[in-house]
Amino acid sequence: MGFFSPVNSTNRYLGIWYYNIPEQTVVWVANRETPLTNNSFGVFTVTDEGNLVVLDRSRDNVLWSSNILVADDIDKNNTIGLLMNSGNLVLRNSNSTVDLWQSFDHPSDTILPGNET
User: Fold this and answer.
1) 89, β-bridge pairs
2) Full domain range(s) for residue 12
3) Fewest CB within a 10 Å sphere: which of 4, 88, 93, 109?
4) DSSP annotation of 51
5) At 30, phi and psi to the nearest 5?
6) Phi–psi pair at 77, nearest 5 degrees
7) Residue 111 domain-assigned?
8) Per DSSP, which regions of the chain are E strands?
9) Number of folded domains in the chain?
10) Considering the domain boundaries, does residue 98 fall inside one?
11) Is residue 110 a part of any domain in this protein?
12) In this protein, which residues make up the domain named Bulb-type lectin (predicted)?
């Protein structure tokens, strides 16, 4: 998982791809509709409101967000992002095993093993 640029492009995206295979195979992209342009850098973080976000380099513009409303009874300071061995990116409270958001609920055009629906 990380920021990448497709071949012959200066746009950058946050994505998840298979590791250690000859041809990069991206299986999920966060900011598909709003790429970073001209090889600029981005920031991937958890906000004070408990959302995963991709920000531009200046941190002024949100390019992508998990866009969930975290309940008031959940400590937003303990919200974390985890990349699971399955390739699923999850947002959860560190005091719980309940996922608040997961990338598997927002599939792209690649099906991962064990995620057939």
Assistant:
1) 83
2) 2-105
3) 109
4) -
5) -75, -60
6) -70, -15
7) no
8) 2-4, 13-17, 26-29, 42-46, 52-56, 62-65, 79-83, 89-93, 99-102
9) 1
10) yes
11) no
12) 1-104
CA distance 103 to 64: 13
In a domain? residue 38: yes
Tabulate helix, strand, coil % of the chain (nearest 5): 5, 35, 60
- pLDDT values of the chain reduced to their tens digit, one per residue, 117 residues: 999 999 899 999 999 998 888 888 899 999 999 999 988 899 999 998 889 999 998 888 999 999 998 777 677 778 899 999 888 999 998 888 889 999 998 876 555 555 554
Of 25, 53, 54, 22, nearest in space to 41 by CA: 54
Residue 112 CA, chain-centre distance (Å), reads 16
Q: What CATH number is attached to the domain comprising 65?
A: 2.90.10
Strands 99-102 and 42-46: unpaired
pLDDT of residue 11: 95
